[in-house]
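Internal tracking record. Fields below are filled automatically when a chain is submitted to the structure queue. Please do not edit lines marked as system-generated. If the sequence contains nonstandard residues, flag them in the REMARKS field before resubmitting.
Queue: standard
Priority: normal
Entity type: single polypeptide chain
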Amino acid sequence: MLGTNRIGQGIDVHPLVEGRPLIVGGVSIPFDRGLEGDTDGDVLTHALMDAILGALALGDLGTHFKKGDPAVDGASSLVLLQKVADMMHERHYRLWSADMTVVAEHPRMAPYISAMRINLSRTCSCPVDLLSVKATTTDHLGALGRGEGIMALCVVLLGPGPAQDGPRDR
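SYSTEM-GENERATED OUTPUT FOLLOWS
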């Protein structure tokens, strides 16, 4: 129903593999492995997309971006996020708040968080101060703690209204 606030949550996890660049939040991070996936494997951007789609009750990423689709294979996740943001704006919603967490033992995410926030805010057409990105580890517990992959979690609040004028490169 138009005119109501909507909450969505997203989660994504990918294994780390050799021979791929590591992209998180649209930022290329120097590391010996990257995230496996049909796209660039960007878990943070995928979690944000899933949260927005969930808030709009539009299903999940697989509903909109099919495995094996040439437009998806190897795609930049920021390009796909732009499509999800367009869906949100077409329904007269805008992102009011997003709280995201990256769970990774290695590499350290802290040096890249500011750039991640800027990339995601530009793509969603919202001010950067509406997006929180945090990083944590599992203190060496489980597959993530052994450095086998990276996970991201996201919660969003969408509200009615036109897209905000934000710092966006389109």
